[in-house]
Design goal:
heterodimer, A: 14 helices, 12 strands, 21% strand, B: mainly beta, five-stranded mixed β-sheet, 2 helices, 33 strands
């Protein structure tokens, strides 16, 4: 009896397991069948943040893996115009496909890499595949990529070129190609060693002329989001000559920075005031309507408005800084563009938390400085 | 649909087999050193036999060295016969790499690559590849300072990817983040604490969905979550910050207990012998059997402090490293036993590991101090030059130690 019961129990359990497995397979396969590889690629290309997006993408990449009808080149080509999140999914797919068949597709990959209209991130991956353990080929390719459309490949090419001993002419040519601030600074230093002076602040496009006002109260770090009259008056185009500051009436100060890194040292200007806010304003004259990026280095809390629109807000203090630390897209209009910065210092007493400064430049999307008219 | 008996039983057996295989594949037991500090975050492989002497230049007891592109200050994990590690390279260290290296010969089996979508910046001594990856034996979870989180299978195929800085744009710290993920009960737990979007989250290991999210103090924190097995068998995730200590259910994120406590923000907690050891006030021990509202404090000792390295327990002693001084204390009473200065050590960031009765700790100049752990003293029995900076914690598997230098991976084993 017990044996019979056990047999029956086992049989029921097995039926249950099989039924569950089969039904799961049916559900999964039907939902996967609903997506063709073409649709899956389309989905990956358009991904944004969020759970739904992640679930859909996980299904799509599984479908692509099972269907096995997308080529390596197709996965790479799909990266062009895809969202940043989508490009990473497609990169993951491409890496898997490369392991399966990539090494036999050198010619196709070479052609893809040579096409500067393809996605820069995809071309960078292909470059690594093509030049893995091939130092000579790598150097040959990089020698012709100092002006590459991909910022990453251009960076690599300039990094490689900098290893050689270069003459003035070559360095000057490299300076025109360089976009990353660290490389621009290095080239300028090398030119200086050869007796060629370059205005680093101008080369990087730092804005040197500012009007400053403050300090305003920020004790306890409470006023990052408080709208002081300077903000509202600036938005209305009606700035006053003076305002009530933290302890007294404060007036605007003209400040011109000559620092090579474009830094405006607010700690020096405002006697190391802590728990305070300084506003800085300037005008940028663009010769045309154009897309651009505002790039800020600032170790203190900060906000930026351009032509009345808030474009940047970082309530972060003393966690590292560098040129282009924060970057946001903006639209410049032909003529005068108004820029306002709100710069907030907290009350940390640590020796490393006394810095209060900012550096700001306007660039195109590749990092090339856009200069205000007349500079 | 009809089954004949044979096909029915065949199908059933295949289904049962598949399910069994899935479960066995998902077993952490397959992963020898599955996450930062190894099994149970203990940092100890008591039965491992490692050479006390090795030399990177002369290749003494170096089984292999594999150079990897980019830079890493994270650690390495071992899953079966694969050593898994990450690196970051290129402009602003935006390129994110994940490598699987054959433990037998150091060959790169596969690699995956992504581009940082969050903030890639960090202190020059750090790297975007600062967190140590984690594995549940089925998947590998690679996490980076830029809050990019990728899940791949053991063959390196992408299962899911998540840019947590796209979900939460103010998450980030330009000094660099380094908290390593843990994976437990099908949930990958990350702790992203900074002045912007500061949170901890549990993500489904299977599909990357965020199962829960907890707001955390808006302060920089580099410590890692720790899996703690309670006396009743439940697993919880303990997290610390400069403001608090708490335990959450990994599946729901429900806070099981919490307390105000000024914990260190770099070294991480761990549990051993029914106690939770927390880098706070030096070192503080809590009784895990007393959990009600929160566990009761057993002792604290400010002479057992840790500035960067996570503490560990061997036998009846607890060990901590403060700058260049290794200290030992009694596990039960917290009383200090001994301390020894690591000779000419400069800066140590890599959490130590123990094999047998020897503690191995790397300085960031690549020198490894081997200390024989005694009850009354610690004896430095060897100082070995690897010849490459090491900031991540090693892994031990079998009788080998895997060390992630900033630009290469090493296997150290008796030749």
């Amino acid at each position: 009896m017990i044996g019979r019961l056990n047999q029956r129990t086992i049989r029921c359990a097995i039926i249950g397991v099989v039924a569950f497995s089969v039904s799961t397979l049916i559900v999964n396969s039907s939902s996967l069948r609903a997506e063709t590889s073409e649709e899956s690629i389309k989905l990956l290309r358009s991904l944004t943040a969020g759970d739904d997006s992640t679930i859909a993408a996980a299904k799509a990449i599984k479908q692509l893996s099972q269907a096995n009808d997308i080529t390596l080149i197709q996965s790479l080509t799909a990266m062009k115009g895809a969202t940043p999140v989508g490009r990473n999914w497609l990169s993951g797919l491409a890496n898997s496909l490369y392991r399966k068949s990539g090494k036999s597709q050198t010619a196709e990959l070479g052609k893809f890499f040579a096409d500067q209209n393809q996605d820069g991130e995809a071309r960078y991956i292909v470059f690594q595949w093509l030049t893995s353990n091939k130092e000579t080929l790598r150097n040959e390719l990089l020698a012709n990529m100092k002006g590459d459309s991909s910022p990453e490949l251009r960076f690599l090419a300039i990094e490689e070129a900098m290893k050689d001993k270069l003459e003035k002419k070559e360095l000057s040519s490299l300076l025109e190609s360089a976009r990353h601030p660290s490389q621009v600074v290095s080239i300028i230093e090398k030119l200086k060693e050869l007796g060629e002076a370059v205005d680093q602040s101008r080369q990087l496009g730092f804005l040197p002329n500012w009007r400053l006002i403050g300090p305003f109260d920020h004790v306890g770090g409470l006023n990052f989001n408080k709208v002081f009259p300077v903000e509202s008056d600036w938005a209305n185009g009606a700035l006053k000559d003076e305002y009530q500051g933290k302890t007294e009436t404060v007036q605007w100060k003209e400040e011109v920075t000559n620092a090579p890194d474009g830094a405006v040292d607010l700690a020096a200007i405002y006697a190391n005031e802590k728990g305070c806010i300084i506003y800085a304003t300037t005008e940028f004259e663009s010769d045309k309507d154009q897309d651009a990026e505002v790039r800020l280095g600032c170790i203190n809390g900060n906000k930026i408005w351009v032509n009345g629109k808030l474009v940047m807000s970082n309530e972060v203090y003393h966690t590292g800084t560098q040129i282009d630390q924060y970057s946001e897209p903006i639209r410049l209009k032909a003529g005068e563009n108004q820029i306002l910065l709100k710069l907030c210092q907290n009350e940390q007493k640590d020796a490393w938390a006394q810095v209060f400064q900012f550096q700001l430049r306007i660039c195109d999307a590749t990092g090339k400085a856009i200069l205000t008219k007349g500079r | 649909m009809k089954f004949n008996n044979n096909s029915f039983y065949k199908t059933a057996l295949i289904a049962v087999g598949l399910i069994a295989a899935t479960f066995s594949q998902a077993s952490v037991a397959q992963a020898d050193w599955p996450m930062f500090r190894g099994p149970n975050a203990g940092s100890v492989a008591i039965h491992a036999k490692l050479p006390t002497q090795f030399d990177g230049k002369d290749k003494e007891n170096i089984a292999w060295r594999t150079e990897l592109p980019g830079r890493s200050v994270g650690g390495v994990i071992v899953v079966g016969d694969a050593a898994i590690t990450t690196s970051s390279s290129g402009m602003d260290q935006r390129r994110l790499h994940l490598f699987s290296v054959n433990t037998k010969d150091g060959e790169i089996r596969w690699q995956q690559e992504f581009v940082a979508r969050g903030r890639p910046f960090c202190h020059p001594t750090s790297a975007n590849a600062a967190p140590t990856p984690a594995s549940d034996g089925k998947y590998i979870f690679a996490f980076y300072s830029s809050n990019d989180l990728a899940c791949v299978d053991l063959e390196g195929n992408l299962v899911w990817y998540r840019s947590l800085s796209t979900d939460f744009p103010k998450a980030g710290n330009d000094v660099g983040m380094s908290s390593s993920p843990v994976v437990v009960e099908g949930v990958c737990v990350v702790q992203i604490e900074c002045q912007g979007d500061s949170f901890a989250a549990g993500l489904s290991a299977e599909d990357g969905t965020i199962l829960w999210k907890l707001d955390r103090p808006k302060q920089a924190n580099w410590s890692s979550p720790t899996i703690v097995k309670m006396l009743n068998g439940d697993q919880v995730v303990v997290m610390q910050s400069s403001e608090d200590l708490l335990a959450v259910s990994p599946k729901t994120g429900k806070i099981l207990w919490e307390m105000k406590l000024r914990c260190s923000s770099i070294p991480s907690s761990f549990a051993a012998e029914g106690r939770l050891f927390v880098p706070a006030g030096g070192l503080t021990a809590f009784d895990l059997s007393s959990v009600g509202a929160s566990p009761s404090k057993l002792w604290d000792n400010n002479k057992l402090s840790s500035n960067a390295c996570s503490p560990l327990v061997v036998g009846k002693s607890v060990y901590t490293i403060s700058r260049t001084v290794l200290a030992s204390g009694d596990l039960f009473s917290g009383e200090s036993k001994w301390q020894t200065r690591l000779p000419d050590a400069k800066s140590i960031w890599s959490s130590p590991v123990v094999a047998g009765n020897n503690l191995y700790v790397f300085g960031d100049d690549g020198r490894c101090f081997v200390v024989e752990l005694g009850d009354t003293e610690g004896t430095v029995v060897a100082t070995n030059e690897l010849g490459e900076a090491v900031l991540g914690s090693p892994a031990i598997s079998g009788n080998a130690m895997y060390v992630r230098g900033v630009s290469s991976l090493w296997k150290i084993a008796e030749k």
